[in-house]
Design goal:
By secondary structure, this protein is an alpha/beta fold. It has helices at residues 37-44, 54-66, 85-92, 145-155, 215-223, 261-264; strands spanning 2-3, 6-15, 20-28, 46-47, 75-78, 96-100, 116-117, 130-136, 156-167, 176-177, 179-181, 187-189, 195-197, 204-206, 209-210, 227-230, 244-251. Helix 4 (145-155) links the parallel strand 8 (130-136) and strand 9.
């Protein structure tokens, strides 16, 4: 519906976060042409009960399907999101651990706010520490996403899963590096600088990669565990976002057939 005062969209459905019937609503101060509604929904389509957005509902739906017993598991979330899944995990999962990263703090240090200081690319956790690892829109900000994927795979227990959301900017195109680090640690910008919000530091997080669907095979090669890219569009759950995907990595418990699998990959 377009009106001179702006745009209001409402839809009834089931919220995977609230786990109950709800109204999904998006509002805009200016008229929103229908062809832009899916882009608008990304930040504006909120569950009126829990205020979750499409990204959070999508990753919650996948977690509920793949690990319905998640409340009894050990879960690590790096850089937790806003309303939606992260507060629910904090309330309902005793084994939920949160990390952020600040270069000004010691690796592994636990802050007064209760989060642990961890560089996702070089973590201090022991091997096989977690049943589930989660990140929401983090991998577009990493300088070394392959290292982070390998570290996450290391910290997963056999049978564990990694779930991430990430903006897919060039779905069927090529993944593009926006910024990298020089050998002396200086940031090199290959494209115009772009930033997202950040709950720590100066409130800004540099975008380093514009991902395509190539993210699946890239992370598989870097980590040694298979990754699958899931694209979910389901307005019955208020999930509509042209950029986001849920990427799933599974560290399967493998049978011992007497072969050196690590050696085969060298």
């Amino acid at each position: 519906m377009n009106a001179p005062q702006g745009t209001v969209f409402e839809s009834r459905g089931f919220c995977p976060v609230c786990e109950g019937p709800t109204t999904f609503r998006a509002t805009s101060e200016t008229p929103m042409p229908p062809k832009f509604q899916a882009h608008w929904f990304r930040g504006a389509l909120r569950c009126q009960a829990c205020q979750s957005g499409p990204r959070s509902r999508a990753i919650t739906h996948v977690l509920n399907r793949l690990r319905p017993h998640w409340r009894g598991l050990v879960i690590h979330e790096s850089s937790p999101g806003g309303p939606g899944l992260s507060p629910k995990l904090r309330r309902q999962c005793p084994g939920y651990l949160v990390s952020q990263y600040s270069p000004d703090l010691a690796p592994g240090e636990v802050t007064s706010q209760g989060w642990r200081n961890e560089n996702l690319e070089d973590q201090t956790f022991d091997d096989a520490s977690f049943d589930v690892v989660l990140t929401q829109d983090v991998f577009e900000h990493l300088f070394h996403p392959g290292r982070a994927a390998a570290e996450i795979a290391r910290t997963l227990r056999p049978g564990g899963i990694y779930l991430m959301t990430v903006p897919i900017m060039n779905p069927f195109g090529t993944t593009v590096r926006r910024a990298s680090l020089s050998p002396d640690g200086e940031v090199v910008h290959h494209l115009e600088e772009s930033y997202h919000g950040n709950p720590v530091g100066d409130g800004r997080s540099l975008v380093t990669v514009d991902w395509s669907y190539q993210i699946g095979p890239y992370l598989s090669a870097a980590s040694g565990i298979p990754f699958t890219v899931l694209v979910i569009d389901d307005m019955s759950m208020g999930i509509r976002d042209p950029y986001n995907a849920v990427v799933v990595g599974h560290k399967a418990a493998l049978p011992d057939l007497g072969e050196d699998l690590e050696g085969l990959r060298r």
